[in-house]
Amino acid sequence: MIVLGLTGSIGMGKSTTAKMFADAGVPAHDSDETVHRLYSGKAAPLVEAAFPGTTVSGVVDRAKLGARVLGDAAALKTLETIIHPLVRADADAFLARHRAAGAPLVVLDIPLLFETGGRNRVDKVVVVTAPAVVQRARVLARPGMSEEKLAAILAKQVPDAEKRRLADFVIDTGEGMDAARAAVDAIIAELAGR
Ligand SMILES: CC(C)(COP(=O)(O)OP(=O)(O)OC[C@H]1O[C@@H](n2cnc3c(N)ncnc32)[C@H](O)[C@@H]1O)[C@@H](O)C(=O)NCCC(=O)NCCS
Ligand SMILES: Nc1ncnc2c1ncn2[C@@H]1O[C@H](COP(=O)(O)OP(=O)(O)OP(=O)(O)O)[C@@H](O)[C@H]1O
Questions:
Q1: For residue 117, what pLDDT is reported?
Q2: CA end-to-end span of the chain, whole Å?
Q3: DSSP letter at 10?
Q4: 29, 106, 129, 142: least buried by Cβ within 10 Å?
Q5: 194: pLDDT strictly greater than 80
Q6: What is the Å distance from ligand 1's center to 191 Cα?
Q7: CA 190 / ligand 1 centre spacing (Å)
Q8: Closest residue (by CA) to atom 15 of ligand 2?
Q9: Is any atom of ligand 2 closer than 6 Å to the C-beta of 174?
C-alpha cells in the first residue's frame, strides 16, 4: 500500500483536494477533521485541564482555544503535545484498516507534515499551493479570521516555497477545481496504475 501525504499551508486547499482523492475512490484521512472530532470527545477534558474556560458544555470552543494559543508559542506547544499523539493514533488505525482491506493507495491529509516529522510516515508527498494573494483572500474570508491570527499561524508553518521544494507532486489550486481534479487523477494513475 502506498501512503500519500497531502499537505500545504493554511487555505491552500488540503481539504478540498483530499475530497477529490476520496471521490476518486482513494481513502483519505483528514487531520483537521480528526482534531475537531476529538474536541467534542476524548480531548475535551484534557484541553479544559490545560486551558481552563476553553470548553463549553464539554466541547472545545475552537474560537476560544485559538484566541488562547495562537501567538503564544508555549501554549500552542502544550496543545500540540496533547493533540498530535491522538491524531497520529487515529491515522494509524485508518492505515491498519485500509492495509487489511488491501487498498493500493491511501491519502493522509496532514497540515503539519513537514513541521512535525510526518515525512517519515508517508511514501510520497503532494503539496497543494496557490498564489499568496489567493491564499490570503481565502483565509481572511472565513468567519473569525483576522490578519493577526493568519500571521500567527503562518509564522508556525514551513513557507510555501520550501514545501513545494520538498514535494514529489505539486497541485496549484489557484487554477480552479477542474485543473486540480485532473492533477489528482494523474497522481492516482501514476501511483496506483489506474
Ligand atoms: C488553534 C485551533 C484551535 C484553531 O481552530 P480553527 O478551527 O480556527 O482552525 P482549524 O483547526 O480548522 O485549522 C486550520 C489550519 O490552521 C493551521 N494550524 C492549525 N494548528 C496549527 C499548528 N499547531 N501549527 C501551525 N498551523 C496550524 C493549519 O493550516 C490548519 O489546516 C486549531 O487549529 C487547533 O486546535 N490546533 C492545534 C492542533 C493542531 O496542531 N492541528 C493541526 C494539525 S493536526
Ligand atoms: N482547486 C480549487 N479551485 C478553486 N478553489 C479551491 C480549490 N481548492 C480549494 N479551493 C477553495 O479554497 C478554500 C480553502 O480550501 P480548503 O478548505 O480545502 O483549504 P485547507 O488547506 O484545507 O484549509 P485549512 O488549512 O484552513 O484547513 C475553499 O474556499 C475552497 O473552496
A1: 87
A2: 14
A3: T
A4: 142
A5: no
A6: 29
A7: 31
A8: 13
A9: no
Grid-cell match 477545481, residue found: 177
| Cβ–Cβ under 8 Å, residues 152 and 146 | no
Predicted TM-score (pTM) of the model is 0.94
Which residues does 47 contact at the CB level (< 8 Å), separation at least 6?
Answer: 39, 54, 55, 60, 65, 79, 82
pLDDT digits (tens, 9 = 90+) for 3-39: 999 999 999 999 999 999 999 999 999 999 999 999 9
Residue 64 annotated in ligand binding: no
Helix, strand, coil percent content, the chain, rounded in steps of 5: 55, 15, 30
Q: How far apart are CA 96 and CA 70, in angstroms?
A: 33
Ligand 2 contact, 176 CB (< 6 A): yes
Bridge partner residues of 5 (DSSP): 108, 125
Question: 3-state DSSP call for residue 19?
Answer: helix
Is any ligand 2 atom within 6 A of the Cβ of residue 150? no
Residue 52 per-residue DSSP state: T
Pick the closest to residue 95 from 85, 86, 105 (CA basis). Answer: 105
Could you identify the atom of ligand 2 that is nearest to the CA of residue 171? 1
Q: Determine whether the annotation assigns residue 66 to a binding site.
A: no
Question: Would you say 35 and 80 are in contact if contact means Cβ atoms under 8 Å apart?
Answer: no
